[in-house]
Amino acid sequence: MTTAHPYRGIAAYRHWQRAPGADNAAELDPQPHTKFTISPQDSIATAGSCFAQHVARHLKNSGFNALVTELAPAILPRDIASKFHYGLFTARFGNIYTARQLRQLVERAYGQFSPEATAWRRGDAYVDPFRPTICDFVSTDELSAERDRHLAAVRKMVETLDVFVFTLGLTEAWLDRDGTVFPVAPGVHGGAFDPERYTLKNFTVEETAEDLRATLDIIRRHNKTARTVLTVSPVPLMATALDRHVLVSTTYSKAVLRVAAQMVTDNDPLTDYFPSYEIITAPHCRGEYFGADARSVTQAGVDHVMRVFFKAYAGVEPAIGEKSTEEILSNGVEHRKKTENILEVICEEDLLRSDEPPQ
Amino acid sequence: MVISMIGGNQHLTLGLVEGPEPFDFECPQVAGIDRTRRIIPHAEVRAALFETFHKVLDRMRGLREAYRDKPMAHVSAPPPKSDPKMLANNLRAYHPGDDAEVAIVPRKINLKLHHLQNDILREFCAENQIDFIDPPPNTRDTSGFLQRQYWQRDAAHANKLYGDEILNSIRSYAGSVANAPNGPKTVAGVGTGSPGLQGRP
Q1: Which terminus in chain A has less CB density within 10 A, N or C?
Q2: In A296-330, which residue ranges form alpha helices assigned H by DSSP?
Q3: Beta-carbon separation of A73 and B48 below 8 A
């Protein structure tokens, strides 16, 4: 005799043994349904940590409309433009690791937050504390002008995107005395570390969720129908500022981000969670989606994530695969070559790869 | 002694005919910036210009390796010319049948690119034990452009008179290396000039 219970008759994907993937990892599909769909015509904005760069590349290479609002100068060849971070994301943010960093970015773009820090010295040059690896500037005037252009591109992104894909990366961050959060610790790539001024912050679930909600509030104030997909980067921390094993800090960080993402997506019909983290770290995959350094995500892993993403949101399984360079407007390069004839003529975290731990 | 006059007009690839996106950039040696154009960070303009230098630097490197024990200097290209109308008229010859005015990059921006070109070359030369010979100061006007008396009537080159100035600079350089074979070889205070030199003497 059988009895009724809550698990009888549930869909296969809800049951570990019946859900495809244990025998063949390629069949793992942890996104059986979504809150909304994405069409190739939708303008898709991307931002986040290193892993988000993979998402941006695949969108573009798969025929989707990856929104870019901060275009490279026409004189820059594509491969050089990407080294200056053009086209890696929708605008030239650099990597955005924490929800607070994202929140302060949109607040700065709309004049709601004016950080005390405006420029860091790096040798004879200056860098933008909020994206220190994109470019060295010869003066603070040059830096300031370029930041104005960047923040205008952020506003354009907010106001024109249809879908915003944000990949959460970290909970640890360095804060200035006015609460400004930086993507890397002062002193790592410009600036100087002052222990009296800068403090370590390890964001909690509640703080992360609140920062995400505040960000989405600003976006929707300017774009009422914006849809958001939150993901968590599966890439472990390169280093932790806390005196404990980096793996323990990694699990804390990912757990916080995962829970915060769920808290924000629950009860919000315009925000969805996509399980990038789960696909890469799933026991089904037996660690094979991590490279030899046990941190980098392999191409096969990225392809799996994006295959599930496209199938879930667009109902398609496009032939995907990363190309080496971004499609960035660079008509000027062709122009330069013509002139020659007449005359006869790019992960800030990797900064921590060395032995030197963050200050 | 080895004298390199390889290359020279790379600055004109970005600084002669207007491209699809007019730009300006901050240059420490030239004051002023036109904010009606796209302002590109100096580092990005440098990277774009550097892309045109690979063959030039390969050839200079080859020369340096072939004559490892000899003093070697590279001669700067002549400073750019200040007259956009002359340049436009000259370039029209390359577009027969096209009466449209050739849009010329503002001369001050070309001057900036010339300075940037020499910054790139000086850096390369310093890394490869090559001395660098600047344009003779007396060949520049007060704004830094090539004085009209040294113009070849084309977009890129200087004339024989300028070539004479360069030869003087090379002679001074030769004297300096002869007198101080193991010492610094830079010709202090002596202008020396440059080529772009395909057209000159």
Answers
A1: N
A2: 299-314
A3: yes
Residues 309 to 348 of A: which have CB under 8 A from any B CB? 331-332, 335-336, 338-340, 342-345
Interatomic CA distance for residues A256 and A100, integer angstroms: 13
**Chain B residues within an 8 Å CB radius of A344:** 198
Would you state the pLDDT for residue B34? 95
Q: How far apart are CA A105 and CA A93, in angstroms?
A: 9
Kindly list the residues from chain B whose CB atom is less than 8 angstroms away from the CB atom of residue A137.
41-43
- Could you give the ipTM of this predicted complex? 0.84
pLDDT at A331: 54
Chain B residues at the A interface, defined by Cβ less than 8 Å, are: 9, 12-14, 16-17, 19-21, 23, 26, 28, 38-45, 47-48, 51-52, 91, 94, 155-156, 198
CA dihedral of residues A60, A237, A82, A53 (deg, nearest 10): 10
Three-class SS of residue A279?
helix
Q: Give the number of other CB atoms < 10 A from CB of residue A159.
A: 12
A317/A308 Cα distance (integer angstroms): 8
| Sheet bearing B72-75, strands edge to edge | B2-4, B72-75, B131-133
The answer for A 58-87 residues in CB contact with B (under 8 A) is: 73-77, 80, 83-84
A75/B12 touch (CB, cutoff 8 Å), yes or no: no
Cα torsion angle, B55, B61, B66, B70, sign: positive
Picking from A342, A344, A346 by the largest number of B CB atoms within 10 A of its own CB, the best residue to mutate is A342
Q: Of B200, B197, B147, nearest to B9 (Cα)?
A: B197
**pTM given for the model:** 0.86
Specify the DSSP class assigned to residue B198. Answer: T
pLDDT digits (tens, 9 = 90+) for A305-342: 999 999 999 998 765 554 433 443 445 666 666 665 55
Measured CA to CA, the distance from residue A228 to residue B52 in angstroms comes to: 42
pLDDT tens digits, residue range B64-95?
Answer: 999 999 999 999 999 999 999 999 988 887 76
Q: The tokens 């860091």 sit on which residue?
A: A120
CA distance A134 to B134: 32
**Which value, to the nearest 10 degrees, does the dihedral of the CA atoms of residues A39, A41, A43, A45 take?**
50
